[in-house]
Specification:
The protein is mainly beta. It has five helices and 30 strands. The chain folds into five domains: 47 residues; 181 residues, no CATH class; 134 residues, no CATH class; 90 residues, no CATH class; 97 residues, no CATH class.
């Protein structure tokens, strides 16, 4: 979340002190409000972290693919199928939208999928048709392939379906009112085909489809709240203004602020029913189901106790200077500030100057010189230094900048003395199909691709039916070669190389002891000496200031005196709890803070006792060691919520429902809608005085009196231009219709079984 704070400061002469105070208060209040908003967002981020929505995102993509497949099943009837083997009929997603076969949909991120790359395609093969559904979205692309026979695309509610498949149906079923299926011979076959009739059951399902139409209205000045039935489609701006005429006046600048809606959908579902306001509205609802299944078994019950703790806060009796970190058991109770200081006073002191004379030897250093002197009583050698020199060869090594290698690798290579490797800058996933079973038998027809498995049909033939035959003597057995999708990662890495360079330089040093250097290859190139020379003079060797004219021993009064006034400070030497208690000790005031804390010694007590079927205690409970054994009927919870009651399976006891809500919130954006200058410092209704004013000796303004669609139509009324926004909306009308289709099994979703069954020939 990004917050931008724009503070505009306008300096104008003639503003009063009260106006400055008002502006300061407004700015301070604005800063406090922004701080509270940021604090609220931070707490929400900590308390409600983003959940893992991977399963939800995959479900969105799969539902979109299924919607395209359902629309294709309805569209490709006999007349629309390709006639020759190898021919295909293709519909892009855009074609399906244009034909109103499907409603527009979005991917998990709210982006539109590619309407050109996404398509459905039917291809005629030797004995059946192949349906391919391909969906391409910004963040995911995938497809499904489904073999279809004549029964898939024959017109619904048609008894005698004569489809252009290889081996057309010779027997057609009808279903009576009592659900009995009768097979009608339409094209008898030779006697040798008596055993070739293979049929499958299909079930009639219905669902209600909603056809949504949008009608666009005229432009209007009032702004409506957008909802599921009302959408803003266009806006336009109209203009009016004033023209300049001769008049003398002082004008004041006023601005009018407006707010434009900025709705965003809160993507998370919540169980909480939140209050609806102008800025927070309900976006969608859904019902979740959970239940129990009946289980009879022997149950061991174990007793667990849950302890609670009630607060018992005690306030410390004394104050402390220590800052103690706050925890759940210690909190800051109070603070206070202690003060101490000094009071000034003036002290006068008279001092007298005394001097001491002596015949003093003075030694003066000569500085460094290569000339060597003879030492005597007036000349002494002080120091000797040597200049040594050595030729030095220097080798420097360095690493190059990181380079992109551009080679795909399974893992990062090992570092060497001349080459180092960094982390990857690119990666890709390699998918390969590995043979899992060479020949796998099943009585159910498999999809070519299901999850991470791929099924290659090798052969099929009828076998004797031995289990769950439903009155049939044989069952069709299919043999597949099964592949499993294997995925691996490859990466491109950064690398850098090492190189060395050599250079020669002269190392020259000035040292006092050259031996350690000459032993390491250095040569003495210069020797220098420093001497001190003695001279004697009668001079003042010391000066003292005392509080008496009488000179100390060895000193002479210099007939000079000085009076000094010194401001000194007397310490209060105690701490008080307020500045007022310092009195006249108001100089060099010092403070220190004291703290008083309250401490919690929680009291432990039993708040609950439960029996469970596990020795492992639930969170917050402790096992007591007590247990009992009972045989009873229990109800096993489903322990998850589903969006459809049919998905509960055998968990049909004690069904519980809850409603979840999804909301949208409005964060209106403030903007300056218009600016006007008036003859009064009091702003018109809806406007705010900016503090700016100007004095004109001969200028005033006359209103145009009407609105125009183009600013060019204002003519000479181009001053203090006002704008207003007009809105154009589209309104939704909903028409529902019922769709019926035959399925081999429960398709799920919003399909409802119509209690009708038919038998169809499988070729």
């Amino acid at each position: 979340m990004t917050c931008a704070i724009i503070v505009v400061v306008i300096f104008e002469e003639g503003e009063s002190f009260m106006e400055e105070t008002r502006k300061s208060t407004v700015i301070r209040d604005l800063i406090i409000k922004i701080f509270l908003i940021l604090l609220f967002v931070f707490l929400i981020t900590i308390l409600f972290p983003m959940p893992n929505l991977t399963a939800f995102y995959d479900s969105v993509f799969n539902n979109n693919v299924q919607s395209m497949k359902d629309a294709a099943d309805s569209y490709f009837t006999k007349d629309r199928m390709p006639e020759k083997v190898g021919d295909s009929v293709k519909l892009t997603l855009q074609d399906m939208l244009d034909k109103k076969l499907i409603l527009p949909f979005l991917d998990k991120d709210g982006n539109e999928c590619d309407t050109k790359k996404s398509y459905v395609k039917v291809t005629k093969e030797e004995k059946e048709y192949k349906l391919e559904v391909h969906l391409s979205c910004p963040n995911k692309e995938d497809y499904i392939i489904e073999p279809i026979g004549c029964y898939n695309f024959c017109p619904e509610q048609t008894v005698n379906c004569n489809c252009s498949c290889s081996g057309a149906q010779e027997e057609q079923p009808t279903t009576s009112d009592d659900g009995k299926v009768t097979v009608n011979k339409t094209n008898p076959t030779p006697s040798n085909n008596n055993d070739g009739g293979k049929y499958k059951l299909q079930y009639l399902y219905t669902r209600t489809l909603t056809d949504i139409n949008w009608n666009t209205g005229n432009y209007q000045s009032n702004k409506e709240d957008e909802n599921d039935n009302v959408r803003l489609v266009d806006t336009k701006t109209q203009y009016t203004g004033q023209k300049k005429v001769s008049a003398g006046s002082t004008q004041y600048k006023h601005v009018k602020y407006a707010y434009k809606d900025n709705w965003s959908v809160v993507t998370d579902w919540t169980d909480e029913v939140k209050p609806i306001t102008d800025k927070f509205k309900l976006y969608a609802t859904r019902t979740l189901y959970t239940g129990y299944k009946k289980v009879t078994k022997d149950v061991m019950n174990y007793k667990h106790i849950k302890y609670g703790y009630r607060d018992n806060w005690v306030i410390d009796t004394g104050w402390t200077y220590d800052v103690i970190p706050e925890t759940t058991k210690i909190k800051l109770y109070a603070t206070r500030t202690l003060y101490t200081g000094y009071k000034p006073y003036v002290e006068e002191t008279t001092q007298y100057k005394h001097v001491k004379y002596a015949n003093k030897d003075t030694w003066t250093e000569t500085g460094w010189s290569t000339t060597k002197r003879t030492e005597n009583s007036n000349t002494k050698l002080v120091d000797t230094r040597y200049t040594v020199r050595k030729t030095v060869k220097t080798t420097k090594g360095s690493w190059s900048d990181w380079i992109k290698e551009g080679v795909w690798r399974d893992s990062k290579p090992a570092d060497s003395s001349t080459k180092q490797w960094y982390g990857p800058y690119n990666e890709k996933t390699i998918s390969t199909w590995k043979t899992l079973y060479d020949s796998w038998s099943t009585t159910e027809l498999q999809q070519p691709i299901s999850g991470n498995r791929r099924y290659e049909l090798l052969t099929q033939h009828p076998d004797e039916c031995t289990d769950a035959c439903n009155g049939n003597s044989t069952v069709m057995r299919y043999y597949y070669r099964v592949y499993e999708l294997q995925e691996s990662k490859q990466y491109m890495y950064y690398y850098r190389t090492y190189s060395e360079t050599s250079s020669t330089s002269t190392d020259e040093k000035v040292v006092s002891n050259p031996k350690s250097y000459t032993d390491n290859g250095y040569t003495i190139v210069k020797t220098e000496y420093k001497y001190k020379i003695k001279s004697s003079d009668n001079e003042i060797v010391d000066t003292k200031w005392t509080n008496s004219k009488t000179s100390p021993s060895g000193y002479v009064y210099a007939n000079e005196k000085k009076v000094t006034k010194t401001t000194k400070y007397k310490a209060l030497d105690k701490w008080v709890t307020s500045k007022e208690k310092l009195g006249e000790y108001t100089s060099y005031v010092k403070t220190k803070k004291q703290y008083k804390y309250k401490r919690n010694n929680p009291e432990k007590y039993v708040i609950g006792t439960i029996w469970t079927t596990s020795k492992t205690s639930p969170s917050g409970y402790e096992y007591t060691g007590e247990y009992t054994k009972t045989t009873k009927t229990t109800y096993e919870p489903y322990n998850k919520w589903v969006t459809n009651k049919d998905k509960l399976g055998e968990y049909t006891y004690y069904i519980t429902t809850k409603t979840q809500y999804k909301y949208k919130q409005n964060n209106p954006e403030k903007y300056i809608e218009s600016t006007i200058w008036t003859d009064s410092i009091n702003p018109p209704a809806g406007y705010t005085y900016t503090g700016e004013y100007k004095t004109n000796s001969s200028t005033s303004y006359v209103d145009l009196g009407y609105w125009v669609d183009d600013i060019k139509d204002l003519g000479e009324y181009t001053h203090n231009v006002k704008t207003r926004k007009l809105y154009r909306y589209k309104y939704r009308t909903v028409i529902t219709k019922t769709e019926s289709r035959w399925f081999d099994k429960n398709p799920g979703g919003d399909w409802v079984y119509a209690n009708q069954t038919r038998k169809v020939r499988v070729n």
